[in-house]
Every structure is written in C-alpha cells, then in structure tokens.
Amino acid sequence: MGKLEKVKELIRPGDVINTIGEDVWYKPWTWIPNKGIQLYQRWLFGRNSSYKDTHTTMYFGDDKVFSTTYPKAKWETLEHRVDMKFTVYRYAFSEYTDEHIDIMYNVAKDLIGLDYDVGDLFDFMICKVLGYDSVRKVRLFEMSRKKFVCSTSVRTIQEKLRKSLEEKGDLTFKRLFNTLNPDKWSRRKIEKFERTDVEMTTPAHYANSLWFEGEFKRVCGWQDFE
What pLDDT, in 10s, does the model give residues 151-174? Predict the structure, then answer.
C-alpha cells in the first residue's frame, strides 16, 4: 500500500492539512513569502515550535481539498498535498457530524475563486515589528475584506460552523485559539492577550495548538511514511 492510500485510510472530512513550502532562492516570488511566514511564526511561537509550515488547506474529499493560494482559492487533490512535506491535524474536542461537514463545505464552496490577499502577508510582517501577535491592528496593504490567505480562510470556515450552530443554541464548538496555555506563554503575554483574530491565524496555529487549548491533534505526517 502506497503513501497516498495509507493517508486516505486515516484522513477524514474537516481535517486540516499543513504543508511546508519547498522553495528555492532563485524563485523569489514564492521563496520570499514563505520565508516571511516562517520568520513570523518562529517569532510568535519560538524556535522550539513547529514554525515551518507555510500553507493550510482543508480536506473534504480526495479531489476536494480546499486551498487558498495565489492567485485564487481553488479545489486541489489530496495526492497533490501528500506529495509535499505535509501534516494532517484533526479537531480534538468533538467529532464532526454530516451536518457540520455540510456547513463547512458550503462555506468553502462559496470561497472558491476569491482572490488571494498578498497584502495580508505584508501586514503580518508589520504587525510583527509593532509587536501585535494576535489582534489585527494594521491594515496597510489589505485591498479587500473579500480576500484571504490560506490559514485565515480555513479558520473562517471553522468559525462559520461555530457561529451557525450557536444561532441554534448549539455550543459544541468554542472560538479557536482563544485561551493561552500558561505553560507556553509568559505571564506578561497572557495579561496582554485579548483573542486571536481570524486574520491573524497562521499555519503554525494549527501545528502549535498546544500553545492554546490543544484544539487540534496530529493524525499523520510525511515523516510517518519515509
């Protein structure tokens, strides 16, 4: 049984797939953004964290992997993502029902075709310089509220599920990355923390959810199939 077949046996709809961009310096149009993402995530979570992931997608089916990448959000195949250095993460506190998957899938379907927001990446860097690591206080380069980067679009899908259920009195899901783990952060950081804005969600938030409440657990990754 090959790697793809093994992953298919493990992965479930609603799972998050993170990948590490393997770019080279002589392709600066991809190398620079990915290095910038990694530097920001290393600053946020530390050198001993999983800070190298540069892209976040959501799995709905083998040919329905939701991905917001330049220039527009689109469907990809699981095979395409598994060919990279990938890790699969699953929501840890509750299992998704068919209703939950339907809600998230419909949100993802509505996002297909929307433009990728390159400006968000520049604003991440400015927020880093100014010391804003969880609340979006800078919007210098954002061109439209209808544009997303990869991890913010996945987080948007998840938060839309939460809000849709809350409107019916169902409190199954909590807002993600909303509570800091005191074993991972300084007291000063915890005292200053308000929330993690959707727009400030990075791929490393999923990889380092133990820095919060452990909302996501690792299912498998590329290292398991070496």
Answer: 888 998 999 999 999 999 999 999
